[in-house]
Every structure is written in C-alpha cells, then in structure tokens.
Amino acid sequence: MSRPFKRFLLLPLFVCLLASVGAQTTGNAGTPAAVSEPAAAGTTAADAQAQQGTSETSDTSDNGAAAGEQQTDTNIDSQSPAAPNTAENPAEESDGAGAVSASDGTPSDEIAPDTPGSPGTDNTVNEKHNSNGNVQGNAVNKDHSKNGHIPENGAETEASFDEGEADAALQKNRLQGQDLSVRNSLERSLITHRFEGGVAAIADSSVTRSFFAAGKDGFITRFSYRTMKPETWQVSTMPIKRIAAHPKKALIAVYETDGFSIHKISLWDWQTKKQLYAKRFTSSVLSLSWSAQGTYLFIGTASTEGITVLDANGNVKKVYPRPPGIVLLAATGPSEKSIVTYGETGRLVYADIAKKSILTQYETEDRLENPELIKNYTQIIGYKNGNVVVVKAASGEVLENYPARSALFAGKITDSLPVWIEKGESGRTWYLCQGDKKSPAFSLPHPADITAARHVDAAVVIGTDDGRLYRLTQNKDAEVLLTELNIDVSIPIRDICTKDSKIYMLSGSTLYVSTSSADKPEPVIQSVLGDRCTVYGNGFLFWSAEKNAPLYYAEEGQTPVVLYRPRERLNSVSVYNDTIAAVRAFSGLVLLDGKSGKQLFTYQAAGLQDAVQVDDTFVLITKSTGGVIRQPILLINIKTGETMPLNMDGDIAFSVQGNNKVANTFSCFRLKTEKSEQTDLMTMKLDTAYPARSSFAAALSYSDEDLQASLYDDGYAVLTTLGKNQLTYYDKRRRSSRQLPRDYALPRKALMTETYIVSVNYDGSLSWFNRRTMQLLQYKTFTEN
C-alpha cells in the first residue's frame, strides 16, 4: 500500500518561476509539481568498467568491406530536383546493379539530403539512392520529500536565460537566408497538431529546453519548456514508434515502421528540418538511444546481431567481437569509453568501444519490459511480473522491487527513483508514481489509454491513443492537474477533385467548392457518407476506400442517393462517359450504368488495383502479378471478354489514370522487387488495334517501395507524390521534372487546374501552388467555424 501524501512547501523562488508556466487545468489550478534533483554525480557504471582490465579483444576493424555494389543514378532523391528520363524506352533498359542482401538486422544506407551517404560497412547495404535522396527522373533527459510530489530539479528549473527570447531568436536565425516558400513553410510549422492514431513516444531535450512528441501519423511536435509553443513537422508517411533526442544538439533520431517489412532509422536536424541520413533494417528495432555525449547512436534490434552502433555521420562502427544478443537497452557513461547493453536474457555486457573488446558480463533479472536508465546511468529499471524492478548497472544486483499493476515509465536519466504512470482499478483512472509513492487517482478529460510519458522539466508529459498530449503537475495536496497541450479544432479534408477549374473538397460530411486560393470555400453538398469523391457528369460520386459502403451520386444542392451497393469496400472508381468502373477489394471489376447503377460487365479476379475504361471496347486494369497472368497490367475487351496482358514487367501496377486531352495516353505506378525495391512512374501509349505495340516508359523512379504514391495526369503533365516527400511535376513533352516546395505536412494527393496545383496533405490541410511558378501560395485548414 502506498504512503499517504503530505503537504510540501515549495521554495518561493521556485513557485515564482513556475507561476509563469501556469495553464488552464481540468478542475482547479494549483502549484505545479516539483521535479527530482539529479542523482549525485560520480563515475558511472559504464565508465567504471572501462577502467578494469581488458578481456576479449577483437581484431575486427571499424570498416569492413562494403556490401553493396555501385548503383546507377536512376533513383529518387529527397531534396534535389528531379531530372528527366531521356531514354527512349526505359522499360526495356536493365536496372542498376542489385544490392547485396544484408544479414538480419543490419542497416543499409538510404537517403542523405545534405550529407552524402557513405558506403555501407559491416554487412550494410548501399541502397539505390544518390547523395540527396529525392525523386529523380531516369536520365534524379535527491532530495526527496515524504509526500507524493516528484522533487524539484533546481539545476534545470533556474535557467539563466529567457527561454521565450531564445526560441524567438532561434526561429529568426533559421528563417534568415531561406527561400520565401521555405520560410513560409517553417513559419506555418508553428501549429498545434493532434496525432492521428495516437502518441507513440515522447523525448526530453534539456539542452534545447524543449521536448519532442511523435505520433503514429509520422508527425513530430517540439514544445518549448517555458512557452509550450508547438512546432510541428511531418517526417514520415509511416507510423513513428521510437524517437531519441540528441543530448547536445537539436537533432532527433526517429524509428519509423510499417509493422511488417519496413524498419527505418533516420536522423533529423530540427532547426533546418532536414534529414541527415537514414538506414534500413531487416528486423524490428527494440531500442533507440544516444551515447552520453551524442557521439554514437545505439540501435537495438530483434536480430541475431542485437545492436548496431552508428557514428555521427551514420557510419556503422564495430564494437563487439561477437554479437551481444537481442539488446533492449544500450548506454555509455559521460566519457563514452565503454558501452553497456542489457538483453532480454538478463545479461549485462560491458564493452570497450575503442578496443572493440568485452570488458565484463553480469547476469541479472531477465525479460524486463521497457528497461530504462536512471540515477545518472547507474541504475536500470524495468517492469516484470507486477513489479517495477531496479537493478544496479555495475553488477546486475537487484536493488528494489516496487509493486505496480502496470508501469509506463516516464523518467529521465537524472531521476534518483523510477517514475511511472500506472493504471487504476477502474481502467479509467491512473496514478503518477515515484518509487513507493503514489498520487491520488486521476482521470483524463477525454477517456483514452496513455501510450507515452516522460519527465520533462518540472512536470510529466503524457500522450494518449487518441493523439492528445497532457502536462501533469500536482497541487499542494499532491492531486494531479492536467493541461492539454495540443488542442486541435481543425477538421481534416478527406479528398479533393476538380471540375470546370474549380476545386471541390470533401471534409466531414460536406463537399465544399473554391475557385482560387483566396476564396472562402462554400458548401455545395451535405450529408455525404464516404471518404472519396469523383466527378461524374453534372455531379459527383461518393464512396469509401476504407470500409464497405454504398456508392452515392449527388449534384450541387442535392442530397446524395445510393447508386450501387457493393458487398465489400472499393479500391477505386473511375468514369468514362456514362459508365462507371469500380474495382472491388476482393471480387474484381464491375462496370456500372451511371444513370441506373445497373451492372454492365464484371471481371472476377483477385489482386486488382485500379481500372480505367479506354473506349467503348477496352478497359485497362492494373494488378499484382499473382495468378495465372503474370503481367501487372491488362487490357480487357468488354465485348468479347478477351484478356490481353501488356508487355510491361514488374510485380505490381497501381493508380492508373487517363486524361481527356491526349487520347490513349495513361499513367500508373509500377513496383519492381527483382533486384531491389523500386517504384516507377510509368507513362504509356496504348495501341488498341495492336496491343503488343503499346509503349511504356519509366518517367520517374524511386529506389524503394511507395505503395501510397498518388498521381494526377492532365495529358501534358503528371503531378505525383512519388518519393514520400515533395510533390513532383513531370512535363511529358519536355521529359523534365521539377519538385515543388513541401509544407510542414507531406502531400497525400494533388491535382491541377490551368492556374493552380492543389494538394491535400496527410493531416487534412490544403496547400495551394501557382502552377506557372510552382510557388506555395496558401495553406488552409477547415475548423468547426
């Protein structure tokens, strides 16, 4: 049973300092909680081991042979402009040398926007990227009271500078010298963002007097300690699972994964919002941390290698004569002479970094969940069998067990006791715990599960599975007070389409229209049930690509009516005259009469992606290569049922689009995985009389998988999100490409009119560009008002 809390009088200076940080709370306002002082300084466990005698010495050098062969220059880069594909028939050309497959868990060089990537070593693989990383054309962080407060950390709280002024100066400096559109984008990043899918991780950055929060939507927000002003940037289209803030600089390491085959570690310079490097791993990442001074980045994986150590440039550094096993925690002392790792088998391994030798090993409690370091690197904490376990890092001795129903650790390296969030008895209540002390139960204003927590400055910050962030402080009675940090009232735009040079935006259950970036969007159709919209005749089709829902039709001012009821969700919907082509997720293609909804033609097959009707006779279909027909693109005669595979290789084709300006010309994406993963933007010219004579060309290529890529083809140019970064504009006639400036959020889908390029972004915001100059004009979000 936990001890009752007693009143603790804070120092007047501390009260005055924190008063300026006071914010609105649920219930009543009170004095903020105090924060733990740093543990007594001294030799850390890792440094102590470095002074012992040596044992096993490795002869392995830092730099092994490069595992990847030299690649061709036909890949996507993330910061430099794309170049055109000047080859007459790129589809017929062979790819560059295939990358050698890595051993399980070792990374491969991926993208380095501003720093050229160095060759992979120690079984790393050089992926097919150039030195910058964008789409390229194929020619591109002791004194305890006896109450429930978390004691004060005076050293961190009594800052000797005005943090608000420091933030302003930092922002001003980083904006100076930037291109106008880039500066505008950085200024717009100063926004509040609620993380779709939930908060995944929180990392403290005491050196910058701020902390970072990352979400499953690929966004990261930095909050200043004093002002709590947010700064948001999307770093990935995939979920972020772990982050680690550099101990000395404004750098943030990120682990993003699709949960299956893609596991990527990237390093970002937060001041410039530039990716410095990225590494691909073949197995999941179980831990991510920096050495004490930030010289090395430690990546613990579920592979037999156990851990990968990267230096400041992202190069792999050999440390162990043999793999230490699966690593759940890695750290150094301030001298960074030795490294200690904790594995799931309960083994503590100390190694000399310079000598690449094992210093000593200890056996301790095994299978600790979510292990972390506290007390200046001298103690390891973890959760096991209903207890928070404290282990002495220098020997493996179990020092303490604290009973806990659950434990979501929220500590930092200077804490003398473990700090965690614990679930209450009801499931709707929570406790803030420190050692054997527990706060009164508290609940969230918006019921949700707490998914991340971190001791930040004079408080604890938590994140939830509904994407909210709260700052937890305690009043004089030790009651927990909550302040929501990321109140977001925006309503995301789900989809966009264009008709008669107007932009139509689907948000919530309403379709809006706007003719320019300066216009206020006006509602034209309400009561929409769907997440996708497509122009058809004088009206619009509404449907869902996320769940089984009817296909609706409505004209402006009308209420949508059901046109077709599929038994499954729809992958895609396209229109040709009065015929609607709908690709069902599992049972294939159906052609519908646009007036009555009657089925005109069906083609049952698995793996279909999209379909576009070419003319009165033919339908063009993209698919995966499974089944009898191996080609990823087919031409089907709807009069005879004849199926004609077209001569385009690849494992899967998707997002095929036609246009109403240039007959029989289409665009789609193709994924190839034979030698290495590569996604190509393909342009094609169909010959319906002699299908074998149809031609295909790879206009742009990205040396990775990008199944979320989208495109818009107006006949003369293709606009695409290929490359998971900026929009790329590809001029078909000139065979040239140009990248548009990116906003704080990455583009999800875009389209063009004669005057504008409009992008709906991953957070549901809208970006307007001038089509002629390619400059970013306007950024908009919808709100309840």
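^ that was protein a. below is b, sequence first then the tokens
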Amino acid sequence: MDPVNLCLSPLCSCMQSFVTRQDISYVFRTKEKLHDLENVMKHLMATKETVRRKLDDPQHNGKLLDNQHQVKDWLRDVGEKEDKVERLLDEYGKGNCVPAGSCSLNCFSRYKIGRNAFKLKEEITQLTIKQPEIKFTNIPPPKSVPESSKIVGEKILSNLNIACSYLAEETNDIIGIWGMGGVGKTTLLKKINQLLLDNANMGFDHVLFIQASQNTQLEELRNEIAKELHLAPDAVQKDIFNALKTKNIVLLLDNIWEPVDLVGLGIINPYRDDDDITKSNKYKVIFTTRLEDVRDQMRASKIIKVECLEPDEAWALFKHNANLAVIESDERINEIAKQVMNMSGGLPLALQTLGKAMSKRKTVQDWEFILDSIKNSGTEVLQGVQGSFLPILKLSYDNLPRNIQECFLWASILGWLSKDDLIECWICLGLIGNFDNLQQAYGTAKYIFNILEEAGLLYSSDNGCVSSHDVIYEMALWIASDLGMNMNKWIVEEYDGLAEIPTENRENWRMADRVIISGIKLVPILSLQCDDLLCLMILNSSYLKNIPRGFFGQMPNLIYLDLSKSAIKKLPEDIKCLVNLQYLNISSTCISSLPKELVYLSKLQYLMCGYLRWLRKVKNGLLSRLHKLQIIDLYPYGWVELEELKMSKKHNNIKAIGMRVVSQEVLRELSCLPTTQLHIELENLEELVMNGNGSYLNYLTITNNEKLQKISWTDISPPEHFHALKALFISECNLASFAWVLHLPSLALLNVQHCAEVKELFYVEKREIHQVSERPMFPALQYLFLVYLPKLVSISNFAVEFP
C-alpha cells in the first residue's frame, strides 16, 4: 500500500465518528481553540482582580458584605475554572496529541481536548458575565438598652462594636475577651451571639455558642459542637472538620479555664495565613476567660479587656436592680446606697446581686444595718482582688430564709445535677419542710427556685439543670467552708477514674460533714472515725465495684448516703451501723437484692432503688419493718408481694412509691397509694381500667401484656387522670390506638414499640375528630419513639399537630 494511504486510512476510519463541521474543527483547530480559551481566561482573571480590589478596599472596613455567599460562590467557581484550564493546557503540552505510531489515537486525543476547550470557553464567558456586584452596608448598631440602664448599655455597646468590627474583617482571627469573674464577659459574648443571629449571621454559615466550665474536657466541647451541627453524638474531630471545611464559622467559647486545642475540636487551624478566599474559609474564634495565662496561651490576635464600671455606670446599674423609688425617697438612704454601691468596686455581678438584695429594704435602719454588715464582713481573710467581693455578694445569701440558704448551697455546689435530682436532694435532706405528697414538695421546690433566680443566685439552663455564676459558686464554697476557716467542711472532688484517693484527701474526711466525690475506683480506707460526717455522695463511679467491710462503721452519724450510678454488686453487712440514716440511694447500680441488714435502719425515710436491672422481688418483712419509710422507689424492675405492700401501707406514711406490678391484686392496692412510677407487666390482662387515682403518676410502662386490647377510664378523662405523666413506654401489647395520649398536659416522652396491631397510632372516630382537633395536642411532647410497628400505615386518620 502507498505510504499516503497507509497514513490516511486510519485517519479516515477515525473521521467516520465525527458527524459535524464543529466536530472536525476540534481535531484540526485544537491549538486555535486553546488560544481562544486562554484569552477568555485572561479576561476572567482580570475581572476577578477587580472584584478582589473592591473587597479589599479600606473604605469598606467594618462593613458587612450584603451578598457574601454569592461572591464566595463566584470566586470559588473562578478558581475551579482556572484549575481546569491549567490541566487542559498541561495535557496538550505534554505531547498527548503528537503522533506516536497510531494516527487514530492522536485524532481522538485532539478531539477530546478541542471539545473540552470549546465548552470551557463558553462556561468562562458566562461566568465573566455573571460577575457579582459588590455591595457593602454598615453593620446595624446593637439594639438599644432600657433607659434605666442606658449608661451601662453604652459601656457594653462600646465593646460590642469593637467585636463586630473584628468579625467584619476578612482574616481568620482568635479574639480573646478577658477580665475578672463577674465583670460581664459572658454578657458581652451573649450579645455578640444575639447580634449575629439578628443580622443573618453576618454572612457566616454557622455561629456556634459553646459553654465551658472549670472542669470541661475537650471531648465534651467536641460533643457540644457536634450537637450544634446535628452530627452523631460520637462524632470525632474528623467528622467536625469535614462538616466545616467548606463553611465560614464563628465559634463562641465561653468561660474557658485552660487553653483549648482548636485543631483537636475539629476547627480548621485559625493561625494559618491564607488570604485566598477561594482556598480558605473564614474562621473567627471568640473566647472568654478570667485567666491571663490562658488568654496568652490561646495566642489571641485581638484582645477585648472587660473592666469594672466607672462610678456613674455602677450607680446606674445598682439603681436599676434596687428599689429606685425608695432610694430617691430619702436623702439618707440615697447617701447610704451610694456608699454600698462604692463598696462593690464597680463589679457588675456584685452591683446586680447587691441591688436585688436591697430591693425590698425600705427603711433607713435597714440600709444602715446592711452598710455596717458589709464593713464588718472580715475581708482580711480573703486573698486577691476577686475574693474581696465575696463578703459583699454574701449579703444576698444573708437575706434568704435559713432553709433556702441551705438549698442555695446545694444547688450551687452541685450544679451538675439535673433539676429533678436536685429537688430530690432538697426533699430528702429535709430542706423543703413537711409535705403530704411529692407534687406538693415539687411545688415548694419550684417556689424556692424562683426566689433564688430573682435574687440572681441561680439560673435555669437549657439542659434541665440549674447553674450559678462562677463567682457565685466560689461564694457558695466560701460560705460552706465557714467563710474560709474550715476548707474541709464540704469536700467536693472529681477524680476521673483515679484508682485510689490520695492519703491527704482521705484524712480530711474526719473534719468534713459533707463529702461529694465522683469518678473513683476504690473507696478510701479510713483510719479515723468520721463522727461529723452527715452526708456522703459517691456519684458516677462506674468502675467502683465494691464497698469494703468496715467502711460504714467509721461514720455512725451519717444521715444521707448516695451510691447511685456505681458498679457495686452488694452492700456490706456493716450498712447496719448507719442507724441514723434517713436517705439511701443505690439506683442504677449492679445490686440484685436488698440485704436483710437494712431492717436496722430504723430512721430510714427514703429508699431509692430505681433501675436496678437485676433486682426482682424484695424480701417479705423488709419494707414493712421500716416504719418511717415515706418514699419507696423500686421502678422499673423491683416489686413486692401483696401482703408486704399491705403491711407497708399499714405501718408507713407512704408519700410516693414506684415499682413493677406482676399481679392484678397488687395493681389494685397501688391504686390506693400515691404511685409515681408504675411498670405494668401482666400476662393475662385484657383491659386496663383507670379509676381516677393516677394523678401522682410521672412514669408509666406497659409491657409484655400481649392480651391487652383496651385502656378505659371511669368518670374521668385521660388528661385529668394523667395530668402529671411525663413519660409513657408501651411495648408488646395488643393495643390498636393511642389517641388518648394526645392531650396529656405534661407528657414529654412517648415510646411505642413492638405492638403488632397498630395501624394508625392516633385513631379517632370521625364524629369525634372536630372535638379532638379543637384542643392543643401534645403541649409538652419533646421525644417520640416508634419502633417495629409492622402494620403501621399512618400516624393518624386526621391532622395531628406536633409541637
């Protein structure tokens, strides 16, 4: 064959696949198309530079870019096109289109590059046309504060405006807010958070507000960030990093006591210097701390120091919290008020707390008494500037009734407890006073909480706990230690899995009347009698498996013992030595039976054995011989037989009981008692009739009742019967509908599982739909769990409104 034909033959074969003139041009005009591509790319890069110059213009400093997301997306697209053009030119330049023994392969390579160059040119042209308009606006000023605190508001606004100007800058920053405890760091951080929320996050994708504390671990902070980002609870650093790597974020870290590893949190390293917005997203980390060395170790690029108020600002804040009418009604009171205010040193927390404490003082004698009390408060025993404010803050404590003073100390010092656990603690320590039933006691407890919150000593948290300011917590410890004179009166320690408590710590127990420890593996061997010890709480010690013999014999006057959430399997025989014990909590342990020695605890009033997975029947004659028992908690696993229950009812003034029910006779007997927790497990039960005595019930479990087809009520509606019910668990029953739960006023958790006959969870007869729909549905529901309902078709046969 002729050499020309030898070359053209495969070329012609190749050309059969090209069907248009444009396709042919991709092969024979590849270089020209690449040249056109380079030209439009140069034009796009010039446009990009114009955009960047506008963004970097100094006149826009401190202003908010209106269309930040649009600009960011456009710059990102430009970067992607730049990379694609570079790769295409590189592919052509490497010789992929030079003949290499196969003319056919060379044609396909040219065709591919020419076609991609043409398409890329069109995309770049369109991207250039879509150049975003750069529009800046001034950051809206923070909302004004009430006139009565206007001067104080101006102080906050000054720092707030500084913080906002830092947020508006295009750099990655760590911003430290620093100052002594109680000076207003958290208040400023919360206002920054609110300003961001009020202004569409100022263009940031995420604003994360994370609360730390003195003992917060990195893992806890990471879990909180994962929660804010709706990630799995066990999310690790990599998960958070992947969720945030393409986002602009603000991380607000409040109250850190040691340097935080931001990389370990999953936050992209904010120290790196990367001016290219297409390759690095903007990160702002703002933290608050009272510790100067923490501030320095966080390597903050910008610092906002929050200082105490000037006299005119302090006076305005004090008057705002005190009774202004009384202060202005008498010249002498006004004069004393200014002296009291001056003693606060301009510390906002002291001014607020002191003002609230004085708000009900109306006579000159009252004010003079307070002034003398502060002057004689003994500040010389305190060390450091921070401590000198504690006697002033104590005034708010002194104004409380004695029983509420003790409630405050427990609430502040045990701030990690849930509100319900804290109320239980108050009740069982006798701080609530006399009560007929738990509902009455809880009502009193809520009244006490309101008093403490109004005094500025406590505040409720979103997680169901109560908290106090760090400085208030320090004041509580100072008061609990007899104003610093007996530092071992209250021992509060967290050991975090420590195998053995240090010897010096053990020796301190003999001087303590309250010991609260957590995270231990071994209880200490006590060499000396602890005659003053009244309260012992060993909490959250999941590795603690044994209480050695003789341990309880060293504390004969103990009245309160909490061993909950440990791994202990039995109580030692010398539990009988605790003859003064009034409260015993072994809930959520591995104990499988109650020892016979408990009968010696003749003063026992509260027996808490909840969630003992291996506990079954309680021995006959045990509870009925404890004649002072008022609260019995065996829920959901433990139970007693009918005769034992009748005897307990006869001899004891039972105010609350919770248990498992395995016979209908026991169920009927419990209907005559203030039952707060009930686990019904009856194999042959077909209909459960509620007779109107469920007003005390908080937790109800109905399970393994395979014949149960109906729940009915006599002369009372479900919302009236179950008005206190918080949690309902139903499983392995033959019930077909649960419409009766729709209007339960307190129901927060509904869990339905393994109910084979359920087709519509909330089925209502047509004639009743209008009546049902008129009333609010699920007024308190927070959690709904539906597990393995094989016949379930729909939630309801009408519109159900969830909160």
